[in-house]
């Protein structure tokens, strides 16, 4: 019996030694070269030319001069940098935005069914509710003007420190702004309506190109989708040779601006996650023994590098080739860092990284679909402007695609009444369709 316990003890001791040795090797194993490069990519400077309109976007729903909003933004940024994430007991500190002391100018009455991204016929829906919307649009005059002023800026990048309680701007008023421009057009001021929707498209481009968090870029793509559809609604009621306002020049052209936002947005999101992770790690007030136990299975630098590598893939040569070929990124994008030997000493980091991984490719495909929608809008406009072309629409759209080979395939719908493309991301709405432009368009009476 004594021999049994002796050998059992040796086995247990040997197992412990092996586990500790494996842990130490896992802890000290060098970071993969790809991860090192991803960290360098993450920390590289990201200069952005022009004026930052984040203060105007952040304060959009409030009756506050932009100069005051910029002052408050600086103060709030400093305050958040000094504010602990939680107390020693784990309770989050309570703080409110200074903007809440100002009256709101956005009207929250329900118009959620109008001008939604992915749904056609925004203009017809607004015209059907024209009288009902009249008092609502009057109450939104102030915020409509504030939205229009956003186009005076070059980009929108948050200066707030990345942390779970970081203030976020409200993007809902932007979609309400589309209703206002559809209303203006339906009431008879077609030039103002066109200028308004083109400004919305311009703001969408700037949101996508800002390289801020993922939510800002995605909202820019959504706004572009809805603005493009409304733009087509308006053009369908105008003659093919109707001159467009200067504000519309190049806004709804498929020039690669949407897919270029994939890399810039993933860069911004990677930095947000990394900075937030660092903030959590140094937040502070944990007892020393809890921190020691946590650090045993969490290597902050390796975890950040794993996440950075997944985000950096969207800026690499493979992703660029897929985007140019208009191939769904989800077929090839790395879903996660997987499980490697280094995860033995970084189990918590690997778990967190793998949980966060799957959504990236789907979000990137939103930008691919936004670019494809602009391609369809461009083809639609070409058909509209060549209204005297007597060839069948199948031949005409085939001829256009011969001249514009790169991009999503466009086809005539089964009923012959529209043009459509397949979508990569929108599983519930697998196609995007535009009705064929009329041969001649006479504007309806207001």
Protein model, in words:
With 446 residues, the protein is an all-alpha fold. The chain has one domain (31-446). 55% of the residues lie in helices and 3% in strands. The radius of gyration is 27 Å and the shape is globular.
Q: Rg to the nearest angstrom?
A: 27 Å
User: In sequence order, what are the helices and strands, one letter per element?
Assistant: HHHHHHHHHHHHHHHHHEEE
Mean pLDDT: 83
List the strand order in the largest sheet.
Answer: 1-2-3
| Portion in helices | 55-70%
Shape: globular
Let me know the largest β-sheet: 3 strands, antiparallel
Distance between the termini: 100 Å
Count the E strands. 3
Characterize this entry briefly.
This protein is mainly alpha-helical. It is 55% helix and 3% strand. The chain has helices spanning 2-28, 33-43, 54-58, 66-82, 122-128, 130-139, 141-149, 172-186, 190-209, 214-235, 257-281, 288-296, 300-312, 317-324, 347-356, 359-385, 393-403, and strands spanning 411-412, 418-422, 431-435.
